[in-house]
Design goal:
The chain is built from 4 helices and 16 strands. It is mainly β. It has one domain: 4-Layer Sandwich (CNF1/YfiH-like putative cysteine hydrolases). Strands 1-2-3-16-8-4-6 form a 7-stranded mixed sheet. A hairpin with a 2-residue loop joins β13 and β14. The two termini are 19 Å apart.
Length: 218
Amino acid sequence: MNLAEKEHCYLIEDVFPRNTGAGFTKKDLEGNLPQDIKTTLSFLSRDVGIGYLKQEHSSRVNVIGKEGLYEGDALFSNRGNLVLVVRTADCLPLYFFSQDLDIMGMVHMGWRSAKEGILDNINYDLSSFKVIAGVGLRSCCYKVGREFLKMRLSKYVIKRNELLYFDPIRFVKETLCRKGLKEESFFDLNICSFCRSREFHSYRRNATIQRTLSFIFQ
């Protein structure tokens, strides 16, 4: 897995087929939709429709057939000439693609969505999918309170120096593998938004209203 740098974003290479692009924006963009994704993808030689979300930290998954604004925290589509986008500033963006099914998806996963079961609501056999965990908090910086010990997420809480930290990567990988994802088909960019807040937006670092855009397109 490699990153190719563009003017306003990085593209993720060597995971999805060449006709499927995926990436995330640099900090020079504020994460405003839809205009910033148009700026980001200005290097394309064609126009693409934009599917994006009024994000709610929910478990709602949308399967869409056309561009537009949808409510919830996940988008999946089998339509070509479309880009799916999520906005994050510490929550974890997840990229999905199945060449066999010709389905792509983006998930915005914060701890609330994780707790509510957003990954359980992805109604596909994941055995043919590849999944990438994008720019977001990692267990190094995902500090949580003791209430996490009473949640379904408690298995993924780490105690370190008397403090508690959530491991979203292990949670995602194990949850999706139970739904059929092959272990070797899960990829982690290993970029923590808090650790690298000079490069990416982090709400926990400075309460920013700006967001990183993570996207997938065909």
